[in-house]
């Protein structure tokens, strides 16, 4: 069996699906792949939220042990992550129902990241 357009050329497949939707040709849609891609799109937003929490929490942890680094730049980095999280939630209000989950899942990685960056900095490297 030959490859489908989805497998051969995702870009063309996506625009083909959009055109079929626009034209109301629902019976021609590749529903299984379309559903899969829509779910993946939503998951990417969640992954972005989790990634922002990892960086924010790592920075907050480091700020607790590196008082000398409490500069405007440091505070700006933390503020930037908070702003990005707020913007992501404004644009995707449905993510609010997963905030606790994202925080819980991001914490171990944030802790590990903070430790690695702190130890690297103590040895004289860059964070």
TrEMBL record:
Gene3D superfamilies according to UniProt: Uncharcterised protein PF01724
Organism of provenance: Oscillatoria acuminata PCC 6304
InterPro entries: DUF29
Designated name of the protein: DUF29 domain-containing protein
UniProt-listed Pfam families: DUF29
PANTHER family: SLR0291 PROTEIN (PTHR34235:SF4), SLR1203 PROTEIN-RELATED (PTHR34235)
């Amino acid at each position: 069996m030959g490859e489908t357009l989805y497998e051969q050329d995702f870009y063309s497949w996506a625009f083909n699906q959009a055109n079929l939707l626009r034209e109301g040709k629902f019976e021609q849609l590749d529903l299984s792949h379309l559903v899969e891609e829509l779910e993946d799109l939503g998951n990417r937003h969640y992954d972005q939220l989790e990634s922002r929490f990892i960086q924010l929490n790592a920075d907050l942890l480091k700020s607790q042990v590196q008082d000398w680094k409490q500069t405007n730049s440091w505070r700006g980095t933390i503020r930037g992550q908070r702003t990005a999280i707020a913007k992501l939630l404004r644009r995707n209000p449905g993510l609010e129902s997963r905030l606790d989950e994202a925080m819980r899942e991001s914490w171990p990685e944030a802790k590990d990241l903070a430790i690695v960056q702190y130890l690297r900095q103590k040895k004289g490297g860059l964070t």
